[in-house]
Structure formats: structure tokens, C-alpha cells
Design a protein that fits this description.
With 182 residues, the protein is an alpha+beta fold. Helix content is 30%, strand content 35%. Strands 1-4-5-6 form a four-stranded antiparallel sheet. The protein has a four-stranded antiparallel sheet with strand order 7-8-9-10. A hairpin with a 3-residue loop joins strand 9 (136-143) and strand 10. It starts with a helix and ends in a 13-residue tail after the last helix.
Length: 182
């Protein structure tokens, strides 16, 4: 029993010694608002977290205004350096399809591909979703037994997400502490 308590305390102290860094992000995830019948942006934040073995994760979190289809009241996307390039290639495929769909006036919904979730080992499903002939979204859903809690990105935010992930993967991002609490 004492070993178990010691292990739990070591794990908890390891978590406490690895503070998150706020990551300055311009990415905004969207959710469908059935009252306004439009996609509205959700308050979105980003941070860099460090795991138990020193590995870094880029984590985005968006708060929904209401519960969506019985799923959770937030959307979380976490990316490791190992999964970052895979996510970038899925965003690139969305951007290619988005350009073609706008040019040709097409509307469709189609899965683009899947990427491994960095922390828990679940998967993210990336899909193309047409709002109409001119507005197309990158839908990202968390999947374990079933897929839930989708976050949507328009073209502008998909490009911003791609750029931020690229900077994270290549260690060219900069997190400055500009607060007065230094």
C-alpha cells in the first residue's frame, strides 16, 4: 500500500513540475449553431504541454456554447511532434479539395483520413464538409469507440492551424512571456 501511495505521489509531483506554456494562436474552431443556422466560432486557446518523459504536445481547446448532439461541451485537439506531419498532410488534402470544390461549385461530405491522438492513443477523423457551394469546412472528430465532439475549421483557420503545427514540429515556434509576472 505504501508503494502505491509513493507511486501516486511521484506521478502527481511529476505533473505539477511540468507547467503548460500558453501558445499564441490565431486558430478559431467553429461549431454549428442551429439557432442562427450558421457556423459560429468558439473561444479557442492553445498551449504547449510537456509529458512525463519530456515529450511536448501542442494542445488546442475550444469551449462550445451548448452541448452538441449529446457530446461534451468542449473540443480538444492534441498533437505531438510525431503526429504533426500526418495532421499537416490531412490539412493539405482538405485545402486541395476546398479549392476544387469552390472552383467547380461542388458540395459534399467525405472522410479525408485519420490521425493518431497524441496523449490517449485514440484517433482523430478528418473530414471535408460543405456548408454550401462556397463555404467548406475541415471537420475534426475525436474517435474511440465512436466519433464525437467535432470541431470545424474554415479555410483561413485550417491554414493557420497548419502553420502553427509546422512551427511546433520544426521547433520554430516562439512562446514569449510578456506578462508582468516574471
Amino acid at each position: 500500500m505504501n508503494k502505491l501511495i509513493t507511486i501516486v505521489l511521484l506521478v502527481l509531483s511529476g505533473c505539477a513540475s511540468q507547467p503548460s506554456q500558453v501558445y499564441p494562436s490565431s486558430v478559431r474552431f467553429f461549431d454549428y449553431n442551429s439557432i442562427s443556422e450558421s457556423y459560429t466560432d468558439m473561444p479557442t486557446s492553445a498551449r504547449i504541454d510537456t509529458g512525463f518523459h519530456g515529450e511536448k504536445y501542442l494542445m488546442y481547446a475550444s469551449d462550445r456554447y451548448t452541448f452538441s448532439n449529446g457530446s461534451q461541451n468542449s473540443f480538444v485537439l492534441d498533437i505531438s511532434k510525431e503526429t504533426g506531419n500526418q495532421v499537416i498532410s490531412l490539412i493539405d488534402k482538405y485545402l486541395k479539395w476546398e479549392g476544387m470544390a469552390v472552383k467547380d461549385g461542388d458540395e459534399f461530405d467525405k472522410e479525408i483520413g485519420k490521425a493518431k491522438e497524441a496523449i490517449l492513443g485514440n484517433t482523430y477523423e478528418f473530414s471535408f464538409h460543405s456548408g454550401n457551394k462556397k463555404h467548406h469546412y475541415l471537420s475534426i472528430s475525436m474517435c474511440s469507440v465512436m466519433c464525437t465532439s467535432a470541431g470545424y475549421l474554415d479555410k483561413k483557420n485550417a491554414i493557420a492551424l497548419k502553420n502553427e503545427i509546422s512551427a511546433f514540429v520544426t521547433d520554430t515556434y516562439h512562446v514569449a512571456d510578456t506578462s508582468k509576472y516574471q
